[in-house]
Amino acid sequence: MIFVLHVMSFVFELLYQFLFYWILHTFIPLRKNCFMRILAFLVSHFFTSVVVYRNDLDNILLSLTAMILYLIIFHQSSIIEKMTAVFIFYPIMISMNFLTMDIASQIFFAVTKETVPGPGWDQDVVFFVINMGQRLVHLLFWCGIWIFLRKPLRQIRLDLTVKMWLIVDSIIMVSGIACFTTIYFSEEQSVIIYPLCIAAVFSSIGCVCLVAYMSNSMQNAYEVQRLKMQQTYYQNKQKEEERIRSVYHDMKNHLLVLERSQKSEDAHLMIQELRSQIADYEDYIHTGNDFLDIIIKDKAEYAREKHMEFFSSVDFEGIDFIEPLDISTLFGNGLDNAMEASEKLPREQRVILVKAGKIQDFVSILIENHCLKEKEKQVGRTSKRDFLFHGFGISNMEKAAGKYGGWLTVKNEDGKFVLKILIPIPASQKAV
What we know:
Number of helices: 14
Helix content: 55-70%
Order of helices and strands: HHHHHHHHHHEHEEHHEEH
Radius of gyration: 32 Å
Structural class: alpha+beta
Strand content: 5-15%
Largest sheet: 5 strands, mixed
Number of strands: 5
Strand order of the largest sheet: 1-2-3-5-4
């Protein structure tokens, strides 16, 4: 019985250690070396399982020092990000260790009516049951932390500037210092410290969530502003294109009259040269949507400048329920990402395909392009800013598709990136 309880306690402790190790890795990536990762997991035991009592300055300082050194040695990031990880997770870890250990001790003494564990078999069973329960609570708590914070932790690491990191650190540090000071100096019953430990835990969690929310709101506001500016740009360009096309048609007719009236061979050659120079406007892209025409033409011109093969087959005739801003989000972001990925490839691999139109009761959008394979990406890693805005672009495309009940899927396999969007056509549009 005692052996089984001891094994279960060990398993719970090992799972908690791995979970804490993985949460830190989610926030700040570990170094790539496999040996260093294994060693990091083994070493993490020395500070994750530290037991903190009242007036226990040694364990508080030793575990703090150990965690700082652990992050410096085994994780790759800036010093300020590593210190933020300490300020976020260390107060939570120490507060929970103190709470679970102290409450477990209180329960044990209350059950056994002893001041210290006795040698009796019954007391040993009680001790191991309580110990196992303590470690199970620990594990469940950190499971909750992982589920609740995994997305905010990734987001704030990508979004925050140095000044914002310092603000986050100063906010979190206050509650941590208050908690540790109370644990060390308090001469009262340990129950008095419980509310402050709980406050330190919620302060760290709340600060992470608040910063993630603020960052997300700022990014959303920025993206909306960018899309509106992009929409204005395309609208202005659309007007300019219409004006140029009008001038082109007039010029085409004038050249035709001149060609018939001039009998000189040199004049004929000059007129043909002029007609060839303005012939691009005869190959104007027609998608059935004037706003989309401008987007595709603009992207096609950019692709040509960057020596990319750009193939488009877009038929948006009668699809007028998607707002221009959302068309810009879906096609603009998708093609921007495709072209940026293509720029990193040799010229012969720079191929982009965009297809869109009605398929049964859906609007289908497909964008394909070649991209670097995973192993090649590790050699020349994408910057944080690139990663952030690519991810944010996909996120906004998902929101735009979801606005009409649609969805987005991406597939990245063997150096080929495929983005597919399906949007159901409203009943009022199906007959169109």
